[in-house]
Specification:
It contains 13 helices and 13 strands. The strands form 3 sheets. It has a 5-stranded mixed beta barrel with strand order 1-2-3-5-4. A 5-stranded parallel beta sheet has the order 7-6-8-9-10, sandwiched between helices. A 3-stranded antiparallel beta sheet has the order 11-12-13, with no helix packed on it. Strand 1 and strand 2 form a beta hairpin. The protein folds into 3 domains: 3-126, Nucleic acid-binding proteins (OB fold (Dihydrolipoamide Acetyltransferase, E2P), Beta Barrel); 130-285, Succinyl-CoA synthetase domains (Rossmann fold); 375-416, no CATH class. The chain has helices at 3-7, 32-43, 84-87, 127-143, 171-183, 201-214, 239-247, 264-268, 276-283, 287-320, 323-326, 329-371, 373-378; strands at residues 49-61, 64-70, 77-82, 99-108, 115-124, 161-166, 188-193, 218-224, 252-255, 271-272, 383-385, 403-408, 411-416.
């Protein structure tokens, strides 16, 4: 295989001056310069291509720009060079984090052996296209319920520790700390720094969110950035970040600070603050306001209690002023006379009823005595009983030898029948 063939793609035809294997051996190797020249000549045949990516580095040296482009869907990157002669034809506001398309042509430097792409044209990816993609993602996430108010958690009244994700030494960090400490001097922060734009924004923010969400002492998390144009806020609409925020167990406040074209993070967060300053005010209660509220509640409670006591005292005085409580003796005396009359009436009624009942009892006793067999026995009669207590009524029922019991007025005697006595005997 030739040196050219080692670098050529499938189906490519090596140039006429390609170095053949017989021209390079271990005893007669080719030179580095000749090898690099061969590679350069091969790469020079490649056409210019348009490529889309995100600017991850941007260094200006001697009027030229040395930068890198990163694929929007993976970690693949390329090195690019923008010569001073081309720099005037590209937008002057290009910076790290911008989403661009560029016309590039492969370039290989023989002297250093570096491979890069020379840029002949570059422009921002149409913001309208990006916003259209974001709007489609917004609709999808809304349909999945990630924006529903029912899933948003309430912020704690007074968080013990506030997690803060923001850029290092940023104005957003200063605003949150200053305003929170003015409202509640004892507030505590746990800050995780992350890039707030560019290719490092999403992975660093995700890592910071994971650490703070796993910390049991953190009660609420603020993701803060001091505003910016929609192009630089694209990281906060990244689907990975939005879904991570939705899955977090700690309440999250979005304080990106951009009113128009707000990122998707604002929609999925538990609370959206207009600015980092607003986030501090929404998360931390004002100690002065709370003291005033306590004083107001205490005053209201004192007033209500005083009114209740005054009302109860007035009612008690009103009850004490009534005749029954002011002078109860006359009422008792009048009731005593009434009670005496009722007692006398009851006694007379009971006596009459007892007399009537006594007479009725005497009458019944006399009637009972008249009808009782005891009266008959007292006159000398007797009652004969057969065995088993059966009263003898027919002499034929007591043949000779039958045992009899004769009951008289005072007791009973045993007898034995000698048979029926014929009349006239």
């Amino acid at each position: 295989m030739t040196v050219f063939e080692a670098t050529a793609g499938p189906g490519e035809t090596p140039p006429a001056d390609a170095v053949a294997p017989r021209d390079s051996t271990s005893d007669a190797p080719t030179s580095v310069a000749r090898l690099n020249a061969t590679i350069r000549d091969f790469i020079a045949r490649w056409n210019t291509v348009w490529v889309e990516g995100e600017i991850t580095s941007w260094n200006v040296r001697a009027g030229n720009i040395f930068a890198r482009l990163k694929d929007t869907q993976s970690d693949a990157q390329i090195s690019i060079r923008i010569w001073s002669s081309v720099r005037g034809r590209i937008p002057a506001d290009l910076a790290v984090g911008d989403h661009v398309v560029a016309a590039v042509k492969a370039d290989y430097f023989v002297k250093s052996g570096d491979f890069s792409f020379a840029v002949s044209a570059m422009k921002h990816v149409g913001l309208g296209d990006q916003l259209e993609r974001l709007e489609k993602l917004r609709i999808q996430l809304r349909q999945e319920g990630l924006f529903d108010s029912s899933r948003k958690r309430r912020l704690p009244f007074l968080p013990h520790v506030i997690g803060l994700i923001t850029g290092e030494k940023s104005d957003a960090e200063k605003d949150v700390h200053r305003n929170a400490e003015l409202r509640w001097p004892q507030v505590r922060f746990r800050t995780e720094y992350a890039a707030v734009q560019g290719d490092r924004c999403v992975p660093e923010t995700l890592a910071a969110l994971k650490r703070l969400d796993a910390d049991p002492e953190v009660d609420v998390i603020i993701i803060a950035r001091g505003g910016g144009d929609p192009q630089t806020l694209l990281g906060f609409s990244d689907e990975r970040l939005v879904r991570a925020v939705a899955a977090a167990t700690t309440p999250i406040v979005s304080a990106i600070g951009h009113e128009n074209d707000h990122p998707l993070l604002d929609d999925v967060a538990d609370l959206r603050a207009s600015t980092p300053t607003d986030a501090a005010k929404r998360v931390v209660p004002d100690v002065g306001e709370q003291r005033a509220l306590i004083a107001q509640l205490r005053s209201r409670a004192t007033t209500r209690l005083t009114q209740r006591l005054s009302h109860d005292i007035a009612q008690l005085e009103q009850l004490r002023s009534r005749p029954v409580l002011r002078s109860p003796a006359p009422i008792i005396d009048s009731r005593a006379q009434e009670l005496f009359l009722l007692q006398s009436r009851g006694r007379d009624t009971l006596t009459r009823q007892l007399d009537t009942a006594g007479r009725r009892t005497s009458e019944l006793r006399a009637s009972l005595r008249a009808l009782s067999p005891a009266a008959t026995l007292a006159r000398g009669y007797a009652i004969a009983h057969l065995e088993g207590g059966v009263i003898l009524r027919d002499a034929a029922d007591a043949p000779a030898g039958s045992a009899l019991t004769i009951t008289v007025d005072r007791g009973s005697v045993a007898a034995r029948s000698e048979g029926e006595i014929e009349e006239g005997s």
